[in-house]
Amino acid sequence: MIEVEGLTKRFGRKVAVDHLSFEVRPGVVTGFLGPNGAGKSTTMRMMLDLDNPSGGSVRIDGKRYRDLAEPLTHIGALLEAKAMHGGRTAYNNLLCLAQSNRIPERRVSEVLDMVGLTAVARKKSKGFSLGMGQRLGIASALLGDPEILMFDEPVNGLDPEGIHWIRNLMKALAAEGRTIFVSSHLMSEMALTADHLIVIGQGRLLANTSMAQFIHDNSRSYARLRSPQREELRDVLAAAGHTPVEGEGGVLEVDGAETEELGELAARHGIVLHELSAQRASLEDAFMQMTAESVEYHAHAAAGGGPPTGGAVPQWGPDRFEGKGA
Ligand SMILES: Nc1ncnc2c1ncn2[C@@H]1O[C@H](COP(=O)(O)OP(=O)(O)OP(=O)(O)O)[C@@H](O)[C@H]1O
């Protein structure tokens, strides 16, 4: 369990992390999302005591990182720029880390096997591809068999096979009851991996919710109907209390109705349907919705209007949401 309480980081006048409070719980994969510069890496660095907070605290299993006797046995991390000694072999890189953390040497071979690097264990890591380097970084995170694992952009630059492997690894580690905290710019990937989401913008907490709830709260799900008897269908839908709106290509869109109900309604009135489909919003749609709301607020604020809800809405323009690795 990771507990973040009022965490704040200032770089000069820039507030990178602004009174963040949340918990990361065991047994699920928690995704950490936010646009470029939102403060994700800075938050993760403070969790690992690599940066000093300007305020607030982080507790790892109830303790500050610096008070953990053998940190690697509590928390393992893959940060973006993983410091590995390029002149050392993969095996020796991990062995040095193991020895300085009183981890038995046999664990080195175990983790190399887990990440699929056994065949290149005796090769110098400076010759490794990006994917191999990521695997070596993950091996070092797993070395102490920690209950908590943190991954900052773990799939950046990986091929589909590598992405698939990391996704399954994170899910398997969570299924073992571990706490998994992962940041990513790739929303389609995050949607496949994370059960829970922490979303930040401009260093502030925007959402702390399940993936399903986040998508539900920030996007539209509707049914799409296409029929050669469109006018008749529209009347039947309206008479049943629905409010069909016309979409592209003459389709009708109905919010808040199940396809089963609409299909039966059409059948009862002898209406032919060429399409009846449930349109579920994606995580990306939900993000765009949240982005649009922030932009709308700023348009109002710039025009002299006050904030709608006490001014807590952070800036989050679509121009700032550029995938680094995508
Ligand atoms: N050492 C530093 N000195 C000054 N400003 C910094 C420093 N580190 C980060 N920042 C600033 O703090 C803000 C948050 O940066 P951070 O890297 O944590 O964001 P991020 O969400 O990880 O972004 P990205 O997804 O682009 O990596 C940014 O505006 C960044 O420019």
From TrEMBL:
<dbReference type="GO" id="GO:0005524">
    <property type="term" value="F:ATP binding"/>
</dbReference>
<feature type="domain" description="ABC transporter">
    <location>
        <begin position="2"/>
        <end position="227"/>
    </location>
</feature>
<dbReference type="Pfam" id="PF00005">
    <property type="entry name" value="ABC_tran"/>
</dbReference>
<feature type="region of interest" description="Disordered">
    <location>
        <begin position="302"/>
        <end position="326"/>
    </location>
</feature>
<keyword id="KW-0547">Nucleotide-binding</keyword>
<protein>
    <submittedName>
        <fullName>ABC transporter ATP-binding protein</fullName>
    </submittedName>
</protein>
<comment type="similarity">
    <text>Belongs to the ABC transporter superfamily.</text>
</comment>
<dbReference type="GO" id="GO:0016887">
    <property type="term" value="F:ATP hydrolysis activity"/>
</dbReference>
<keyword id="KW-0067">ATP-binding</keyword>
<dbReference type="InterPro" id="IPR027417">
    <property type="entry name" value="P-loop_NTPase"/>
</dbReference>
<dbReference type="InterPro" id="IPR003593">
    <property type="entry name" value="AAA+_ATPase"/>
</dbReference>
<keyword id="KW-0813">Transport</keyword>
<dbReference type="InterPro" id="IPR003439">
    <property type="entry name" value="ABC_transporter-like_ATP-bd"/>
</dbReference>
